[in-house]
């Protein structure tokens, strides 16, 4: 069985900015352990000599002219904002009170 | 519903286009027939629920435009061959004027300020857009059960899954609610729903169709493609949406080949068809294998040379996929933070800092499967594990490409069952993520290597459709249409095509259906 613990999941959830309850952390730890066990064979399948592929096609250096194209107005950009004020996105406090 | 309009929805898209050009039917008539069909079969408790949003007014407006142009003569020459043929769009693809939810609470009520490039192409060609189809949340799933807006039912058996993530698009086409639809395929989300609903779905060569405006799950794997009832219809739609797009830096330059022509050729004489040793046998239902071997026999009898190819690295494809896809997804979905768009949920207690609001927003906005993949991706990318997991998976990707290269030395196209099983009952795999992931075992290698693939109907097993997959080398999409169309032709020589054999669905009267259909059509609320 894999070594993924409830504490590991708690750390990962924090990195991923997803709040989780105790019950969710426990359940996720169990599920992840099974999934990670099943994909473990991948690391055993390759030797160091194989080059990595990050993209299916060898397209490189895709350039275009640096021209101003269509741009959204501030109004359009804010249309879907959960909160906005004075033409800007409004967010809760950035810093903790502590 | 009159027999006449009922009949209209059962034509192929190519036949609809031909009748529109000949002036035998109008686009308004055709579009209304599909809207009526949606009202009759999509709503209610046991309805198909392929659509998350129906856009009747907009679709009829486009249809009327096409009819006016045709009536005026002259300009009709300039119309696209598919002008006036209605289409449905997977709700992962953004549309101006129609909501886009990605099947997630996170985007409830969100309106895109722009169109995806493929949608722009549909509008330019004047295909009436009927609405947006259901999917697993952010395209993560193989059954459409992970949608935040309810399940879609398989028209062949409404107690079973329609496949996923594009179950809505496939079910809409199978249930004659639309002749054409757009899907997206990251690990099989077009092909596997096609297989289990008895329809046709293509994953084009990576880059063949612009991804601009497709909400990204795994950017190096995602691909938009056509969903249809026949190979020719899929080919015609592929031709329409393909082409280089400067807005997508991974878009392929070059001319779009004549896919429709390839489908009409439908000839496998002399074609070398490679059976992938690793994608048949253990893990596949006997009924699926029986239909697969019958397909091989039919192709052989039609003059194809059947050879066996060995792709040993495919045994690691599923594992590599479930490391690469969550890694890319965890990064792509970081943008849903409750700041610029989408849902914002405040924590029930404690201080209101942005970090805590982000945490509660993502906790409430994402479903279980999305959270699982984000956490898995975060794990695979984290310090100490990166080389062992993400790094190794990328190396496996190279090995899979090399296996494909070697296989295409021996064969012009490759063949396998599309999915190891027929449609399974709703709920069966919901508590077992790993069992759910196995549905994509045969479709995933194509995404990892970027090669094109198609699923075409291969007959029935226990009354449910079986899909046959063809794969071709990069940029050789025409070959999958040619081979797919040939099999389609061979299997419907003595019988109706499979899509025409689907059982009749219970229809509610348009009046009675109007309300539930309307409710189902606006999950995003106001």
Structure summarized in a few sentences:
Chain A: It comes from Nesterenkonia halotolerans. With 98 residues, chain A is mainly alpha-helical. Chain A is 39% helix and 4% strand.
Task: Explain what the structure shows.
The complex is a heterodimer of chains A (98) and B (526). Chain A is built from 4 helices and 2 strands, in the order H-H-H-H-E-E. By secondary structure, chain A is mainly alpha-helical. Chain A has a domain at 1-44: Glu-tRNAGln amidotransferase C subunit, N-terminal domain (Histone, subunit A), CATH 1.10.20.60. In chain A, helix 1 crosses helix 2. The longest helix of chain A is centred in the first third of the chain and has 18 residues, at 22-39. Chain A is flat. The two termini of chain A are 40 Å apart. The mean pLDDT of chain A is 88. With 526 residues, chain B is α/β, with parallel strands linked by helices. Chain B has helices at residues 3-9, 13-21, 27-41, 56-71, 117-124, 167-174, 191-197, 231-241, 259-265, 286-301, 317-332, 354-365, 368-380, 387-410, 433-437, 444-449, 477-491, 510-521; strands spanning 51-54, 87-90, 129-133, 180-184, 200-203, 224-228, 272-276, 305-309, 413-417, 453-461, 464-471. In chain B, a hairpin with a 2-residue loop joins strand 10 (453-461) and strand 11 (464-471). Chain A: One of its GO terms (molecular function) is glutaminyl-tRNA synthase (glutamine-hydrolyzing) activity. Chain A: It holds the Pfam family GatC. Chain A: Its EC number is 6.3.5.-. Chain A: Heterotrimer of A, B and C subunits. Chain A: InterPro entries: Asp/Glu-ADT_sf_sub_c, GatC.
């Amino acid at each position: 069985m894999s070594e993924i613990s409830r504490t590991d999941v708690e750390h990962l959830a924090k990195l991923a900015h997803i709040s989780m309850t105790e019950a969710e952390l426990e359940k996720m730890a169990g599920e992840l352990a099974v999934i990670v066990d099943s994909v473990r064979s991948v690391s055993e399948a390759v030797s160091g000599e194989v080059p990595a592929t990050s993209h299916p096609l060898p397209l490189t250096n895709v350039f275009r002219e640096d021209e101003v194209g269509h741009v959204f107005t501030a109004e359009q950009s804010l249309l879907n904002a959960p909160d906005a004020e004075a033409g800007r996105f409004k967010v809760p406090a950035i810093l903790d009170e502590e | 519903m009159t027999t006449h309009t009922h009949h209209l929805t059962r034509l192929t898209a190519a036949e609809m286009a031909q009748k529109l050009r000949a002036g035998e039917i109008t686009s308004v008539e055709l579009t209304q027939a599909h809207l009526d069909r949606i009202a009759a079969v999509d709503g209610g408790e046991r309805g198909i629920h392929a659509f998350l949003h129906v856009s009747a007014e907009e679709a009829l407006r486009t249809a009327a435009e096409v009819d006016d142009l045709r009536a005026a003569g002259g300009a009709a020459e300039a119309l696209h061959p598919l002008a006036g043929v209605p289409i449905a769009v997977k709700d992962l693809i953004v549309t101006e004027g129609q909501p886009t939810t990605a099947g997630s609470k996170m985007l409830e009520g969100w309106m895109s300020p722009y169109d995806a490039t493929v949608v722009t192409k549909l509008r330019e060609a004047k295909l009436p857009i009927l609405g947006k189809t259901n999917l697993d949340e952010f395209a993560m799933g193989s059954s459409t059960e992970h949608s935040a807006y309810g399940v879609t039912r398989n028209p062949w058996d409404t107690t079973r899954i329609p496949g996923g993530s594009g179950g809505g698009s496939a079910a809409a086409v199978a249930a004659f609610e639309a002749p054409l639809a757009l899907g997206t395929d990251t690990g099989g989300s077009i092909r596997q729903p096609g297989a289990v609903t008895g329809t046709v779905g293509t994953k084009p060569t990576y880059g063949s169709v612009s991804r601009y405006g497709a909400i990204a799950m795994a950017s190096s794997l995602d691909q938009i493609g056509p969903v249809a009832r026949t190979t020719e219809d899929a080919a015609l739609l592929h031709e329409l949406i393909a082409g280089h797009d400067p807005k997508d830096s991974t878009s392929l330059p070059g001319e779009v080949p004549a896919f429709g022509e390839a489908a009409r050729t439908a000839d496998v004489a002399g074609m070398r068809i490679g059976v992938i040793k690793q994608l048949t046998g253990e893990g596949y239902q006997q009924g699926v294998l029986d239909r697969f071997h019958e397909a091989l026999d039919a192709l052989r009898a039609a003059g194809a040379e059947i050879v066996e190819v060995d792709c040993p690295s495919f045994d690691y494809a599923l594992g590599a996929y479930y490391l690469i896809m969550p890694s890319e997804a965890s990064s792509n979905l970081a943008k849903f933070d409750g700041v610029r768009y989408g849902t914002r949920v405040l924590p029930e207690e404690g201080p209101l800092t942005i970090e805590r609001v982000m945490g509660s927003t993502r906790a409430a906005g994402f479903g279980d499967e999305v959270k699982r993949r984000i956490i898995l991706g975060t794990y695979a990318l984290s310090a100490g594990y990166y080389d062992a997991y993400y790094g190794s998976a990328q190396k496996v990707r190279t090995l899979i490409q090399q296996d494909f290269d070697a296989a295409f030395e021996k064969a012009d196209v490759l063949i396998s069952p599309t999915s190891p099983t027929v449609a399974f009952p709703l709920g069966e795999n919901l508590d077992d993520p790993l069992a759910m992931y196995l549905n994509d075992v045969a479709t995933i290698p194509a995404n990892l290597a970027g090669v094109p693939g198609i699923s075409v109907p291969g007959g029935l097993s226990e009354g449910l459709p079986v899909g046959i997959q063809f794969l071709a080398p990069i940029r050789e999409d025409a070959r999958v249409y040619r081979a797919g169309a040939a099999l389609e032709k061979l299997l419907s020589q003595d019988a109706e095509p499979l899509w025409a054999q689907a059982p009749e669905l219970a229809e509610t009267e348009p009046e009675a259906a109007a309300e539930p259909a309307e409710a189902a059509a606006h999950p995003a609320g106001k």
